[in-house]
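Page 37, top half.
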Amino acid sequence: MTTQGRAVFGGLRSPLVCGALGRHDRDRVRRMAAALGADVRIQHEDRTATLALDREPLRWGDRRHGGLGWIEGQPWRAGPTTWEQASTAGACGLVLDGRKRRLHSSINGIGAVYWMVDGDAVYFSSRIDPLVQAAPGPLTIDWDAWSSIIAVRFPAGDRTPFAEIRRLEPYSTLSVERGRPVLESPPWPWLDVEQHLDRHEAGAALARILLETAEAVDRPVLVPLSGGRDSRMLACTFAEAGLASRAISVADDEGDTHEEDLARPVADALGLEQERLAADPADYPANWQARARLVEHQFVDHAWLVPLSRHVARQDLPITDGLAMDTMLGHGTRFFVEETLDRDDARRASLALFDSMRQYGRGHLALTEHLRGPVEERARALFLGVAEQFEGAPEQTRLTFYRTRTVRGVASYATGLLGQRASVVAPAIGNDFVVTSLAATTEARDLDHLYVATFDALAPHIGRLPSTATAERRAPHLPRVWRSDPAVDAHRKRIARGPLRGLVDPELRAWLRSSPRGELSPDLRLGMEAISLLHSWWWRYRDRLHEVDVRDLVG
């Protein structure tokens, strides 16, 4: 992965990384490496830093200083000489600057760097579990993080389910000085992009960047193909480059075949075989637990995508992902309602975005009434703490949305659910793609013109085919696996064993016991998934936790 002068793409899966800074316990790092997997080995070790990776590190620098890094979702292009340049290129890494050692994150923040302090040292990992397993004592539940997970589906900011473990923010560094952790976050470059491109200029540039990314990957890929525009844009890109192996469509378990049916004409037009995957009800409990583990209990959803995750684990091919594409291209995204774009009152716009992101379900309503207010208030405060840094910026809504829902929520599918089993390529998180999309004028974004302009430059005939943005969805008419007997039995048992047992809304409790079952409101459905997620996490880590007392949530 250190070849000079050309782009290099990925390994067999997302990078597995751990290490420490400061006066650390080397044996503890080795225990963390063993928890990550047998392929993880020490790549650098000195008096104040240890780094372990499951692959050869990326190397950057000049005669004065350099670094060892890893990258997720993007091809690596050699050439950076500073950590800022390496971060902008998409890498995280360890900075070697004389005797000084620093950890840095990527500009897109997608590659997770979790960290915790113990004594005079900071321990870090690309996954939470090794930090927990190697910790010398019990850890504490973070009720703010869990309130956010329940009310908004993900933890905002740098929080995780454990109070002692945080996530390094995008474009930031972490070091240890005089035995204390030091966090530094220079101004995020994406915050000040000048808007100057019209729709045609932006569309042509975005299409070119997509094709350049495909050429840098330079090997056949699997193309997940839904009914949406993002997956078909990537299918066009890799088909144009001659690198699309085949298309795979997954049933979203919403009571129809809407997505797969819309994907079929796209696959046919691109000359790709379409393979369809769906979950078996008997497998659903195991699929649900696998999903919870792979996203590290940090994103609320059901297990509809697990068949794809299991499928790619049996392949020796990278897989494409449209992560962040709708955030960067779509002006009319369903979450950006008029109130969220209010430039006269930045705080009101932030509050509107908090509410908008919950329009498909407010999970806190699945709790008993006295818990709903504290959970929602904690979640709102955590969200506004992130939003505050973007308030007043031209792209306030888009960047707040990216730093919350994209980075801390849906990215867990690209990095965890799929990324732990295959090498994922996600072109829309690349700096060039993001900066170009942010440079488009407001007029260029109107009515989703950026999508149209990019398709016009890439494959106009594909862009005009019906998609989920234009085709009306039929009413549900097929059985749904998520509410099958095996699925509901598993939820009922999990909800009965955990910190929130006995604190569930009576309507949800009645639905879990009923047979046959009718529809469940979106609020209660997401709440059921969220409470199950918390209890699954608690059951997995209960022997590693201090006592979990729900009274701390309302106090």
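Page 37, bottom half:
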Amino acid sequence: MTPHSTVTSKRSTHRVPLQPVILAIALMLAAPGLQTAQAATKAKSGSNRIITETAAEAAGETPSQRSSHARTVSFSLKQLGALFPLQLRGIRGNSGVTFSIRADQVVTGAKLKINYAYSPALIPQLSHINVLVNEQVAATIPVPTEQAGQNLQREIVIPPRLITEFNRLNLELIGHYTRDCEDPAHSSLWANVGNDSTLELTLTPVAQANDLALLPQPFFDRRDALPLNLPMVFAGAPSGATLEAAGALSSWFGALAGYRGARFPALQDQIPAQGNAIVLAMGNQVPGGLNVSALQGPTVAMVPNPNDPSAKLLLVMGRDAKELKIAANAVAVGSPALSGPVATITSLSEIKPRKPYDAPNWLASDRPVKFGELALEDTLNVAGYSPDLIRVNFHLPPDLFGWRSKGIPVDLKYRYTPRLNTDKSTLNISANQQFLRSLPLLAINHDAPSALDRAVNAVVPPGELIPAREQFHIPLFKLPARAQLQFHYFHDMVKQGACKDVVLENVRGTVEPDSTIDISSFPHFLAMPDLAAFSNSGFPFTRLADLSETAIVMPDKPSLNDYSSYLSLLGVFGRSTGYPATAVSVVGPKQVDALAGKDVVVIGSGNNQPLLAQWADASPVGMQGGSRRFNLSDFAYRVFSWWDPSQRDGAKPGRNQVAFTADSTDGVIAGFESPVSPGRSVVQLSSNNPEGLSQVIEALLDPDLVKEIQGSTSVVRGKQVDSLVAEQTYWVGRLDPLTWVQWYLSRSPLLLLALGIVAALLIGVLLFLSLRARARARLKNKD
């Protein structure tokens, strides 16, 4: 010990130490600040929890009540977008799906029930499968050798804190088959995750403010991948005008729901026990005992559901039918302008009528359409040696007439990282998973640039990606109404040899947003009835997106199921067009005069639709009580059917009938020409009872059953659809005169033969007369 240390030690035995005193004084002075900082830190870290509790407390809920409202939902990876099992390849294979959470819900629990298998060649100490949520590792799955090559199942708990509004769930294979030099793309590096694996979420509702600015939330949330189920409440039996207003709303929500599908159960004077709902009220008739102030005009309001504090009611009200429709249209076309808990509509500009084939969801028929209008620009770019597909979705009008055409022209512009050397890299193009063509990806030109190249590069420096362009045609028969173009960049990995193969993920590919697809050269002409066009696109009713030339004939005494079927059908139409049915007409069976010049949907269950009996001779199917009648076709047995190049263009009515009596709940969809206006269409949705009519709507919402609805008559039996042989008896649309004559003669070979014989006779007669006149003139000159 040094002398200096000894002196210090002696002083410490006789004096009060200064350092502890100073430290204590500093802590006393800093204590309030520390407490404030700690409180701020706690508030910041728990901000989400505080906001949630505040919203719930505003609704008057206790924590126990909130937990009792929690529900568990499950989604398969297929439902989340994985059409095929996830293939994880290479030393770092990665694939996944996206999912989202509604704004009025929080996740309190999450599980992934995964079905998977992996390669027996993987080294367990170096390999594993990561489960990532929003790029954060939620769990790691080991790959022991004794379980390799087997179909395995595993349940993984995902921390709810990793889940936000918009999420991505990824499965990542970290794979190695040797401790020495390895091929990063070796065939033994694989794992497979089934798309039947399920993501299970426990969701707790959170009350939102009564604010119309939130619309369409909470009634529809684009984050929700589940089908929309939104009840509509009427005060007593709704009038035609009330149903028109409700149809505008259901078609709007159907357009928003899109692929999810939407159902609209109808209720009378009854507020649902839980969940959100739409309430339509006219005058002093307010359903469910709701207290509403005196109306000053068309009014829209958002209020809590008295039976479910975490849910909302959207009140659409008017003093008369006109004001009710104004309020409904204001929500359907002007919801972004609304705000506050209550809005009184003082004025609504007249909605401009739609033009044929201008539905927002349909491919424009009057100009080339850019890919940038059909897909987000970010989705048109991919990277890496195993990129995802570039997908461009579009909806075609179902009545495009592609006779004697090459197909739909596409002007494709794309760019890609050039290859170092010529190899097998290609851009593969498909339509609805049907291969169209393959375009080679070129290599860099290693030759010295010419004088022209140097001059061009001085003005426009060369970019990283090579621009390219290709023009091709897609055969029309390869494209259904809902179509998808798929572009896949395949990059060939050239082997360098042992310990030299290094994968650099420095390759890029893009499809330019200014690439175009053009259907403007195609006329609109279609043989009818065609229930495939109806089930896939709502045609011919959706030809005008606002349904201004459509009339819905409701039964005499509709049941709640009839109302629900009508509302859900309008939702199907809205899903097809992407636009609310603001001009649809709803009439009764006695208002036949109102059907002139319109396409008609007739809804009936049991014996409540007298118009079906009145039009029985025109319809291919008749239903009266338990009795049924079907017109059958002998088209398949015609001797000379091979003359007709397209059997779906038969133009003769059914020859035979089958009638029987049965007590069943089958639903029927039938199409025929309108007895009121030739060239107009009627689609009949009917059943012996309301339950059968519900089956028809379920079939229209089921993507697997929709494909089976075709021809002139379809019978729906639960999850089975049987379509009868189709015979089109009339046509809709028009062709230019020359094309019509050519097409008509092509379908009538005997007439064409007869015209050929007549033409030959006329030519022969003209030649005979001409030659005889010349002979007479020659003889006269000799004389």
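Margin note: The chain has six domains: 3-45, 68-205, 245-344, 369-446+456-517, 528-733, 748-782.
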